[in-house]
Amino acid sequence: MDGRLGLSLGFRMDANSYSPEMSNLLDQFSPRFSASWAFSEKWSFNFNTGIFYQLPSYTTMGFRSAGGEAVNRQNGLTYMRSGHLVAGLEYQPGEESKITVEGFYKHYSNYPFSVNDSVPLSTKAADFGTFGSEEVFSAAEGRAYGLELLYRNRDLFGFNVILSYTLVNSEFRKQDASLEFTGGYLPTAWDNKHLLNLTATRSFKRNWDIGFKWRLVGGAPYTPYDVERSSLLQAWDATGMPYLDYSRFNSLRLEPFHQLDLRIDKEYYFDKWSLRFYVDVQNVYNFKSDEPGKLINENENGEEVILNPADPPEEQRYLLRTIRSDGQGTVLPTIGVIVEF
Q1: Is residue 134 a part of any domain in this protein?
Q2: Same domain, 284 and 159
C-alpha cells in the first residue's frame, strides 16, 4: 500500500522445570500482532494485541511449609497471564511534533490468590514482588483499562517536551476463600486513576543542558486496620503488628502525589573522551506524600498497655493508638561526574 501499512507478527514461548504446570512450552504460547496504517499524510491508526506470561515472585514459588514442602508447587502455581489490546490515533502536524491518543484494555488471569487474606497478592501493595511468602492458588483474575494522551515536540520554544496523561482503572474480581467469584471488582494497588507527566530539556551554548520533570499521581487506595482483631493480645503477639480489615479492602484513598525534579549538565569534549558534570535536585519544593496512620500498641512513653489484665487470656486486649504521619519526601540534591571514553 505504497508504504502506508506496517504489520508485525511474532510469538514467544516460556517454560521451566519448577512444576508440571510450568514445563510445557505450548501452555505459555504468547502470540503478538501489531499494525500501523497511515491513512493520510499526517494521520495514522495504530493497533496492537498480544498475550504475555510472567513468573510469580520467587518468594511465592519458594514458599515452604514447616515440614519443608513446597506448598505452592503442590497447589499448581503457574505463570501469570495477561492479554493486551491497544488501539489509537496518531497525528503528526510537523517533523518535530506528534500527538497520540490510545485506548487500552488488559485482562489478567492465573494471578496468585492469597489463601490467608482471600485477595490477589498484587492488590496488597505496589511492590508485591518483594513479599508473597505465603500459600496461594493461581486463581485470581483482573483487568486494567483506560485512555492515554501523549504530546511530543522536539522544538517547543527551544525545549524538547514530552507531555503524557493516563486515565486508568486497575482492578481484580472479588473472590471468596473457596476461590468462587462473588461479583464486582476490587481496586489494586496501582489504581491511581490519574497519571500526568511533563518532561522538558533544552541545550544551550557551550554544552550546557537543563531539564525538569514534573509528575502528578492520583491517590493510591489502601485498606484500613482491623482494630477489633488487632487489639487482641494473642493476635498482636503472633505477628507483632496490626491486621488489615479485608472486609473493607482498598476502600480508602491517599491524597494525590506530585513532585518536581531539576537537572543541569555541563559537558567538555576532548580528543578521545568527554567529561560531564551535573547537578540533580529531586523534589525541589519538598512535597510530602500522604501516608496512612500507623497503629501501635504503645503509649507515649513506649510502654505496652493492656486494657484489663483481669480478663481471661484469650480476651485480653492492648490499648491501641494511631500515630499520624507527616508524610514522606525530602529535597534530594545530587552532584555527579561522568567520564566517557
Answers
A1: yes
A2: no
